[in-house]
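So, read this over?
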Amino acid sequence: MAEASKSDSPQIDDVQKTLEKQIAELRKEITKINKSISARGAEMLDDASEQASDFYETAASRASRTAQQLRSQAQSVSEVARENPGTTTAVVGVIGLLGFLAGLAVGQSMNDTSRRWY
């Protein structure tokens, strides 16, 4: 029986060495995979950062052009209002009157029919 255990021991040692070798190879593969994933993640982060930067530059450019256009139009309206103060007053008055009437109409439509003001 002692001989049987001695002959089994080299086989167990071989199996153990083979498993240890496979584990070492798997660790190397996992390290390679982790490096690859890390590199890909860095590339994706760089791409996303670049896209965000491009988007910001485009939006800033558009906002600047829009602001310039609004300033130009506001200046034109201001000049027309200075040149025609009577017309400007009439237009503002009509707009105010229309807003007041619209407010009355909305208020009446939301008011309960059983509670009238008259």
